[in-house]
Amino acid sequence: MNKLKLSFDKKDYPYNDDSHDPNILWGLITLTVSNETTLLKEVIKWEWNILELLQWLKDNSEHLSVEELPVKLYQESDSIAKRIYNFYNDDNLFDELTADELVEYRERHGLRFGLRGTDIKDVYIGLISNTHTISFYSMEESWNFEIDLVSFLNELRQWG
Q1: 111-143 tens-digit pLDDT
Q2: Which residues of 71-94 are buried (b: 16+ CB within 10 A; e: fewer)?
Q3: CA distances from 93 to 71, 98, 139, 141 (A)
Q4: Burial category of 138 from C-beta neighbours within 10 Å (exposed 0-12, middle 13-18, buried 19 and up)
Q5: Is the pTM of this model over 0.85?
């Protein structure tokens, strides 16, 4: 089973001219997917306040673990990211009710929402066909990895 690993390298807050919350824990956030021997994907490498991401993961851990994507029409082999991409880019799939549900789903499963204000890719973590995955899809690039989400969330609990 592939491992999702979050690492953090603390750095000085770079915007000293700005007034800011003194509780910000600024640094380089790295999220990777690897198997027992090989790094498969560097998902995120971004300087930001790690506390925001940790809080988002904590707040959404239950949803990440059990919530299924509300989009019903798809190819069985499609990743979560590809299903979301197709929904927004195919007029035959789009409907307002599902769109509202999908906005809420994306807020709970899209890493971009865990790092608000950043310009990271639309990466999604979630449950699909009884398997936890992390995925990204665009016309230029796509990837999808099965992950051990339970172990990842358990490790995060040790961060505090």
Answers
A1: 999 999 899 999 999 999 899 999 999 999 999
A2: beebeeebbbbbbbbbbeeeeebe
A3: 9, 9, 18, 22
A4: exposed
A5: yes
Q: How far apart are CA 126 and CA 148, in angstroms?
A: 11
Closest CA to 136 of 85, 62, 76: 85
Phi-psi region of 130 (alpha: psi -120 to 50; beta: other; left: phi over 0): left
**Pair 82, 137: CB distance under 8 Å:** yes
Q: Tell the burial category of 66 from Cβ atoms under 10 Å away from its Cβ (0-12, 13-18, 19+).
A: exposed
Instruction: Find residue 110's DSSP bridge partners.
Output: 124
Determine the Cα angle at 128 with ends 36 and 126, to 5°. 70
Is the pLDDT confidence value at 95 over 90? no
Please give the radius of gyration of the chain, using alpha carbons only, rounded to the nearest integer. 16
